[in-house]
Specification:
single chain, 343 residues, alpha/beta, eight-stranded parallel beta barrel, two-stranded antiparallel sheet, 14 helices, 44% helix, binds flavin mononucleotide
């Protein structure tokens, strides 16, 4: 039970720090260097721009992912409810935060299951830390996480540095790939691997492709930095300085997309990490991603109300539509052949 109380306190800290402190990476996503050519004669009707797509058997109205964030506390339940309401109204994809708290304490199940209750049809992703496969978790826990929210797919997150800068972190990341591969083979739904804000290298992309993952979410550097979050909750000066040094660590989102494209050209890519608006989402798609995910920004909206979260997703969707219009591209598929300018 002590371990469960531990997770609870950590979840509360994470939400509070993300809402109240500056937890931005010292790096940028890299998207600011890429630009569409403006088309003064797009030869398109704005109303006919199609931002929809089909992914894992579900239709989405826009290529937007509410990235995995929370669950496991009362406040987290309310945030998950607001995010799921927004995902439902706007018909976009959503992930819940790590479900370990609920696997260890079934009382916490409703704080995650609320998402499926309010959003029965959305593309919904379960979430567990991949490292837990080295701490006793296996296919049963993955199945329980998926069943808990009737998820369409499972995110396994990779967060070695986040674990390493925490006094209580789970840091044995040895021989994990073979366990991820086994989950990919056995689980009934697709397995997607994500980082949490430090991006994906070519080496990691190659390994993940050989494990048989269905997609990789880059969660690159440029947005929320978990070493900054952990710095703010450090119990002593030693831990604070340890975490603070990593403010500029990681592979920016754009570089991570390129790394996956190079190392695993067939891989489905989700882009996240410092995506600030719909223009960024469309840039990521033109660079090779299928979806653009946002976490930190949506947390701030959902902490206020579901209306705020709906508003933010609606604005993002409209920005996506306008970007495609002004770039002269009528569909997401058409973005595959668009060349961005770099400067
Ligand atoms: C409050 C908060 C909690 C998060 N918890 C999780 C988590 O439990 N599991 C996970 O895979 N990622 C988690 N993330 C990471 C996000 O899914 C995302 O990869 C990362 O924050 C980068 O996106 P951003 O720059 O838009 O915030 C969390 C992010 C935030 C802001």
């Amino acid at each position: 039970m002590k371990r469960v109380a531990h997770i609870d306190a950590r979840k509360s800290d994470h939400i509070k720090i993300n809402l109240e402190q500056d937890v931005r990476s010292g790096l940028t996503s890299g998207l600011e260097h890429y630009h569409f050519v403006h088309e003064a004669l797009p030869e398109l009707d704005l109303e006919a721009i199609d931002t929809s797509l089909i992914l894992f058997g579900k239709i989405l109205n826009a290529p937007i992912l509410i990235s995995s964030m929370t669950g496991g506390t009362e406040q987290a339940e309310e945030i998950n409810q607001h995010l799921a309401e927004a995902a439902h109204v706007c018909n976009v994809a959503m992930g819940v935060g790590s479900q370990r708290a609920a696997l260890q304490d079934p009382k916490q199940i409703p704080t995650y299951a609320i998402t499926r209750k309010v959003a029965p049809d959305i593309l919904l992703f379960a979430n567990l830390g991949a490292v837990q496969l080295n701490y006793g978790y296996g296919i049963d826990e993955c199945r329980r996480a998926v069943d808990m929210i009737q998820a369409d797919a499972l995110f396994l997150h990779l967060n070695p540095l986040q674990e390493a800068v925490q006094a209580e972190g789970d840091t044995n990341f040895a021989n994990l790939a073979i366990k991820i591969e086994s989950i990919c083979k056995k689980l009934e739904v697709p397995v997607i691997v994500k980082e949490v804000g430090w991006g994906i290298s070519m080496r990691t992309a190659k390994i993940l492709a050989s494990c048989g993952v269905a997609a990789i979410d880059v969660a690159g550097a440029g947005g929320t930095s978990w070493s900054q979050v952990e710095m703010h909750r450090a119990p002593d000066e030693f831990s604070r300085q340890l975490a603070a040094a990593f403010v500029g660590w990681g592979i920016p989102t754009v570089d991570s997309i390129f790394n996956i494209k190079e190392a695993a050209p067939e891989m489905t890519i989700f882009a996240s990490g410092g995506i600030k608006d719909g223009i960024d989402v469309v840039k990521c798609i033109a660079l090779g991603a299928t979806l653009g995910g946002m976490a930190g920004q949506l947390l701030n909206a959902a902490a206020i109300s579901s209306n705020k979260a709906v508003e933010m997703i609606k604005i993002t969707k409209k920005q996506i539509q306008l970007t495609m219009f002004a770039a002269g591209v009528g569909s997401l598929k058409g973005l595959e052949s668009v060349e961005l300018l770099k400067h």
